[in-house]
Amino acid sequence: MNTMPESASALSHSHERPARTSSGYVMLLVLLLALVAVAAGVYELTQKVPEIGAPLVAVGVLAFLFVLCGFYLLQPNQAAAILLFGAYKGTDRVNGLRWVVPWMSRTKISTRIHNITSERLKVNDLRGNPVEIATNVVWRVTDTAQALFDVANYMEFVEIQIESAVRAIGARYANVSSQVAALQLVQAHRQKTVAAGGADCVLR
After folding, report:
1. Sign of the C-alpha dihedral computed for residues 101, 102, 103 and 107 taken in this order
2. Cα–Cα distance between 124 and 175 in angstroms, integer?
3. Has residue 3 been placed in a domain?
4. Closest Cα to residue 110, out of 44, 160, 155, 59?
5. Which residues of 14-40 are buried (b: 16+ CB within 10 A; e: fewer)?
6. Beta carbons within 10 angstroms of residue 41's beta carbon
7. What stretches of the chain show up as alpha helix (H) in DSSP?
8. 18 lies in the same domain as 86
């Protein structure tokens, strides 16, 4: 028996939004400036000026470590969900060297096209002959927030939905002639697009 309030047990739907991140190439310049500050501080220490050299070394080292921990790479057709202590702050889709403040975690996710062929399902046509049906699904993630936070495993989710769809089609078109069933399947499902867990699926 579930004693939780309905509002507390309801699933909150996530929606992707752009994250506030910076170009990693700009931050490389900041990293270089931190190294220059450390070098200048070491020079001042060698010149017996610790009141200037020590602060320069300390600030330079801290700045270097701070900037270094924020770098990450994004390949083409790859995204990164940015989280602040578990709270979703947006998705970065810009390719190349990127940077975000170190206390924000990055969860990478592929937005490339995937191809799945379902298992064959046996049904009987009007004459009682066994007919095997299957489907080839081309899909990709379009909403990274939904794929990461609305389902436990979006890859398994898509596979289960494909299998359920094939079984539903088999039950719908069973006990008809194989030629008529094939024609109806082509007409009804050619280039049909469905949204499932933030993924675009094309049934062919």
Report:
1. positive
2. 6
3. no
4. 155
5. bebeebebeebeebeeebeebeebbee
6. 22
7. 6-9, 24-46, 50-68, 144-149, 154-172, 178-189
8. yes
pLDDT digits (tens, 9 = 90+) for 144-178: 888 888 888 888 888 888 778 777 776 665 555 55
Q: Which domain holds residue 132?
A: 114-203
| Domain presence at residue 181 | yes
CA distances for 134 relative to 123, 163, 168, 190, angstroms:
11, 9, 12, 14
105 shares a domain with 167: no
Residue 1: inside a domain: no
- pLDDT tens per residue, range 44-84: 778 777 777 788 888 888 999 999 998 999 999 899 999 99
Give the Cα-Cα-Cα angle 119, 122, 127 (nearest 5 degrees).
155
Residue that terminates a domain, selected from 110, 134, 159: 110
Residue type, position 182, single letter: A
Helices H / strands E in the chain, number of each: 6, 12
